[in-house]
Amino acid sequence: MLRVYGAVRLVFVALLCGMLALIIQEAWLDYRDYAALERTRQLMASITPTPVPPATPAPTPKPIVTRNPTTPPPPTPTPKVYVISSRFSTLLAQNPDTIGWITIADTPIDYPVVQSDDNEHYLHVSFDGKESKSGTLFLDYRCEIASEFPPHFIIYGHHMKNGTMFKALMRFKEKDFFSSHRTFRFDTLYEDMEWEIFSAYVTKAEDPYIRTRFDSDVEWLAFLNDRHDRSMYATPDITLSPDDIVLTLSTCTYEFSNARFVVHARLVRDSQSPQDAGIAPAP
Residue 103 pairs with which residues in a beta bridge? Predict the structure, then answer.
């Protein structure tokens, strides 16, 4: 009887130790996610609007004397009209901060994207406005979707251990997945857009990969080529140009303290197919 009692006690102690280990592991994972969220919150809070110098008034043009006064003046370019797609009506009714939807095939990433007037609010608020550790995928407040010249869009999302939000971006660390999923969709309120990936890498939070202002085409192209060269898998089939519009996806990763995983993609133009644009498996 004593032996049976001793065996039962040992089993009980083993079960108790196992449960305690699971509790400690869960607490550590929660702490890790909270610490990553807090580091992200501090980083986002540190981003302040880039001061824009006042525009210099253009000089009054001098009248041009022409030999043929009946020649009509050149037509004035028609401003682009932005019309909200009807398929976003329901989402906008639920959350007026909605600006688009992102979908990456063969991953759970199939979410609305919102935008606030800062880079902190949606770190801990869900799409329906409730407090949430998962937050919501959101566009950097410095980006403007209703513009003809927005060179750099940036979308942020948490790396959640339950697989939601941007956890699935980690798949792009796998060479086979990277090579076979070079395009994805991010549609805004106004346009349906396909994007082709040209770079993915791990970096530190302080890296200026979220820069949004560039003073010249030369500076913009230098930035793009630098990001292209950083990719963990080469994409020599992609040749970048100053005319490219780029979307960056950013989330936490855990290779080292305050690490970030970044995916860069460029817009596929209406006149291009991914094949025309040079999409091919990475070597």
Answer: 110, 185
